[in-house]
Amino acid sequence: MTNIALQTIYGQIIYQDSLEYMREQVKDESIDLIFTSPPFALLRKKDYGNVEEDRYVEWFETFAEQFFRILKPTGSLVIDIGGSWIPGQPTRSLYHFELLIMLCRKMQFHLAQEFYWWNPSKLPTPAEWVNVRRIRVKDAVNCIFWLSKTPWPKVSNRRVLTPYSDSMLDLLENGYDAKLRPSGHDISDKFQRDNGGAIPPNLLPFPNTESNSYYLRYCREHDIKPHPARFPARLPEFFIRMLTDIGDTVLDPFAGSCVTGEVCERLKRRWICCEIVPEYVEGAKGRFSLDRKENDVPTDPGHYKIYSPVTLWGDVENDELLSEDGGKQRSVHTCDAKLRSNVHNAQNGHTDLDTVEPPTTQLILLSPS
Ligand SMILES: C[S@@+](CC[C@H](N)C(=O)[O-])C[C@H]1O[C@@H](n2cnc3c(N)ncnc32)[C@H](O)[C@@H]1O
Description:
- It is built from ten helices and 13 strands.
- The protein is an alpha/beta fold.
- It has three domains: 4-161 and 199-286, Vaccinia Virus protein VP39 (Rossmann fold); 164-197, no CATH class; 303-366, no CATH class.
- The strands form three sheets. The protein has a nine-stranded mixed β-sheet, sandwiched between helices. The chain has a two-stranded antiparallel ribbon with strand order 7-8.
- The two termini are 38 Å apart.
- 29% of the residues are buried.
- Mean pLDDT is 87; it is low at 350-362.
- The structure holds S-adenosylmethionine.
- S-adenosylmethionine binds at residues 17-19, 37, 39, 48, 227, 229-231, 253-254, 256-257, 259, 274-277, 280.
- S-adenosylmethionine (SAM) binds next to helix 1 and strand 11.
């Protein structure tokens, strides 16, 4: 039996197993967008019942059959999924790639595009490989698979433009000498048209640093444990804006704290959020509390500076020797004084180009929403 935990102007929180709900309640070809972050296959089990890695694809398949059935032909399925590490060794599981292969090869979804959600505030984990043995780098992206039933889901990238960079603004104002680029591309004067913003890349820089939101305050005041794996509102917002119109229907079958529902309510999309853990449902209700007067204001800077790792590279003679065992045995290395000073300088924004070669390459990434 369907348990509607909350009804709003645009949507519902359903306290039920979403597989059961879809089978019993959702009509064929009735949903415009399924946006979700399923429980990931993790090494350490979290308290909301993550599925073990080797059973993951099989477990997901039953959900995928329903997703295909209920999506409109113009609809999209967007899955946010994090990778995981093989227990006890510094190599990665392939489970999320196997999931993607199953969805496309077996379920006949099309991979419209893969995105990467970069969380600039992600901690360097697993600490043993990244911080202690220094044999892997920080894993700071989740894969976002955008899938569709046909190669032509409805979409417009005009909905998710980023601000133009300073150099593009300069070009729009002062013009450009049309010529061939080193790549052979002909930069003609059509690049001088102001389209209201730049087309974003498929790398989405959204920090996950919520600390004083209405949701968290509501949970604190009502003695509810906040959901431990929330995504930032900008993530569903990007796809909801790009892939749906006002009045369209969005489903999040693994809704957690119902961020998807909150964003839909604000964007005037109909929504259904299913969640099976009662405490998460109780917290999610707070997002739609009648006492709530305003929406949260995003606190992130809206753009990020990414240093090229090249910034700190010096003479090859100064490199410490690589360990032949690939870091199998723990060993202690000290960071040499020159490197330490270069790190300090780079962090403070004044890189000494005499001591650091090749020169700094920077990329400024603007947040799309
Ligand atoms: C990664 S969390 C989603 C978090 C959410 N995106 C947010 O920002 O709050 C996955 C959620 O799926 C829920 N879940 C797992 N299996 C489910 C099922 N069969 N039906 C409904 N919810 C389920 C879990 O309880 C968990 O809260």
